[in-house]
Write a sequence for this structure.
């Protein structure tokens, strides 16, 4: 019985899952930012290339 109460009271796994969700959210935000930056840079470099031609 003591082991069961100890298992139920242990929040280590819940904390790990919360940190994993936070890390996933940060990773998604980074991917979105880098994709947007890449698109913006492509447009700029295309404009410079066209101006030089």
């Amino acid at each position: 019985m003591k082991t069961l109460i100890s298992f139920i009271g242990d929040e280590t796994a819940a904390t790990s899952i919360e940190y994993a969700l936070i890390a996933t959210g940060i990773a998604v935000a980074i991917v979105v930012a880098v994709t947007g930056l890449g698109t913006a840079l492509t447009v700029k470099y295309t404009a410079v290339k066209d101006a030089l031609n």
